[in-house]
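Structure first, sequence second, as always.
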């Protein structure tokens, strides 16, 4: 019998990390600034991590990789997600599909979406068509519209054997 679970993740980071690469979906996106964060600030992989952890009932990324722990300073979010996927596998769960929405006024995401999809698929060990990444602006409304930061939502379907 198949056990199906759904998880939702949300993450936000603000702009302001000069000379730090902008990482989104495990891909370096050219931009003048990076995002302020204890780790590499990849809001996409953080939202995915929270979605997977939520589906498994294992809390959130901050519980597993606290920003008060120096060993995670500058951490590669892909490595954190790999660890989370090992937790899922140990519980006999795998990703069925994932849907991601990046909320950003800038930069333009379209040129990077395919690379993000492939990198996320590799990290989740799924085919790329099981990963959907899309982006939207807020029409210059709110903190995203004022270019104060970037947000991301992720919804994941996890399938496991019961």
């Amino acid at each position: 019998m198949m056990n199906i679970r759904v998880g939702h993740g949300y993450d936000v980071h603000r702009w302001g990390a000069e000379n730090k690469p902008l990482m989104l979906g495990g891909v370096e996106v050219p931009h003048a600034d990076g995002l302020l964060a204890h780790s590499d600030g990849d809001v996409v992989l953080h939202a995915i991590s929270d979605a997977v952890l939520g589906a498994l009932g294992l809390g959130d990324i901050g519980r597993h990789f606290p920003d008060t722990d120096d060993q995670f300073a500058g951490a590669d979010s892909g490595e954190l997600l790999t660890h989370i996927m090992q937790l899922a596998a140990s519980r006999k769960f795998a990703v069925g599909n994932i849907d991601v929405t990046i909320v950003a006024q800038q930069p333009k995401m379209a040129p990077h979406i395919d690379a993000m999809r492939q990198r996320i698929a590799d990290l989740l060990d799924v085919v790329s068509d099981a990963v959907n990444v899309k982006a939207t602006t807020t029409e210059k409304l709110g903190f995203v519209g004022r270019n104060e930061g970037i947000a991301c939502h992720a919804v994941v379907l996890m399938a496991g054997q019961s």
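Margin note: The mean pLDDT is 95.
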